[in-house]
Amino acid sequence: MDLPCGVFQQNYAQDMAIFRTKTQWGILAAFLILLFTSPLYLSDALLTITIVIGITVISVHGLNILTGYCGQISMGHAAFMAVGGYVSGILCAKLGWSFFAALPCAALSAGLVGLIFGLPSLKIKGFYLIMATVAAQFIIIWVILQLYSITGGPNGLSVPRPKIAGLVLKSKESYFYLVMIFAILATLVAKNLVRTRVGRAFIAIRDNDLAAEVMGINVFGYKLLAFFIGCVFAGVAGSLLVHYVTYAFPAQFPFLDSVWYLGMLIAGGMGSTSGAVFGVIALKLLDYVVTLAGPAASAAFPAFGGPAGAALGLFIRGLVIILFVIFEPRGLVHRWELIKAYFQLWPFSR
Q1: Residue 20 domain-assigned?
Q2: Count of H-run helices and E-run strands, the chain
Q3: Which of 10, 144, 146, 282 has the fewest CB neighbours in a 10 Å radius?
């Protein structure tokens, strides 16, 4: 991170710090105050969108570690969320576990299932690995449908709301705080993970796995570790999602969500923790705007009727991702870095 003129690092701890100046700490404090007071002035619809954004950020952080940093493309991320969601839901609904006891089990279960489907990464890569993860999406959902007596099959499973010290989180406002705490923790874990030896090994494998192996990196071991960590994040997100909806059902985790998660990484900036956050916020807010514009689209094109408004969201999201791939392949985070560099160098930015 570039620093203002006259600011220097005097030790290694300062050089490794995420927030280095008083201005950065001030911006962080202002952001946290704004975030945690937002339920006071956000509408019910915007509060719902914010909760969904927080849950999606957790999941996309896991995909970013797996795909953005380690280079292992996964198209079955929604299915790993389903594993976490169903494990947490079953433990709470049928065995009477508390949410905070079931959550680690859900995350671990999703990670272990991710290890199983990560095993082919030893022999295959690229398109073939994509197809293996696509298979994971359909296999996991098929298993959920077959275990009718446990999961409820296509009818789904009723899931209780989380409790804290006997207090049930019934309102959206209370659940908002729970989700935001987990989203912030997930962001900090993801940010610090990629700065460790493990993160550097992931990046080496992504850039050139053969060169990484020559340097002594256990390529297969780190690939499996990336699958495990990425799916742990997905498991946490899936658990938070089903407890928010208070119901778990297979249609909650469609294959199309796995595609859009990858699209969020492309829009935000793959291989960047900030990019994962930017991409989720941008596309989720775009969805909200398109939803508001849907009735107007149906009125403008009456020949198409209701489907015009429904298809508008898919069309706009697909168009946005294509435009990012063509004109801004490094995503929103790259544009943000250019803006910061402009103001840091102003008035000599040219």
Answers
A1: no
A2: 15, 4
A3: 10
